[in-house]
Amino acid sequence: VFAISGRSRGLGSAFESGTRDLLNQAYGVAAGRPDVQRGLLRWMFLVLEVGHAIIELRREQERLPDEPCYAEAMPWRQAIRAMGRALIRLFVRPGAENLERALAAVDQAIHAARHTDEPCAPHFDSSPLRRVRSYLHFIRSSLLAPTSPLTELAG
């Protein structure tokens, strides 16, 4: 939630620090419960992976050139905002329905970014949308990873 809605300045370090601090507190409360501690670690890795991908995605959007295909009103930008809302719901209230919504939102964002024409060369270094899609694919892979605590929700 913080990675999506936090202030951009210093976001990466504040996110990392806050996540690790929360884990340390929870880990201490779960002393003597290795099953709970394993679950906490699984959640922490998922939160860090998705959170850092979101932060990089936000940075990529902040650096976009002034071209019509990168405008705030473009469908791919709207899809990313919808994905952010779906991810917030998922992390605030994990459940099968919210996981399904989040995955559908990620897929929609990937689809919208893929179907947007860019004026620059289609190489990774010169294409912001290719980099955006790579972060979106990473988020999707993290949500579906077999080690993710969300696998139990997927059914």
Short précis:
This protein has one domain (1-153).
Task: Describe the structure in your own words.
The chain has 155 residues and is mainly α. The chain has one domain (1-153). The chain has helices at residues 2-5, 11-29, 34-62, 75-92, 96-114, 128-144, 151-154. Helix 3 packs antiparallel against helix 6. The protein is globular and about 55 Å long.
The low-confidence parts are none
- Nearest-angstrom radius of gyration? 17 Å
Arithmetic mean of pLDDT: 91
What kind of oligomer do you see?
single chain
Specify the number of helices: 7
Beta-strand segment tally: 0
End-to-end separation in angstroms reads: 24 Å
Task: Please indicate the percent range of residues in DSSP E strands (runs of 2 or more).
Answer: under 5%
Q: Tell me the structural class.
A: mainly alpha
Q: Which key features would you list for this structure?
A:
155 residues, mainly alpha, globular, FUSC family protein, transmembrane transporter activity
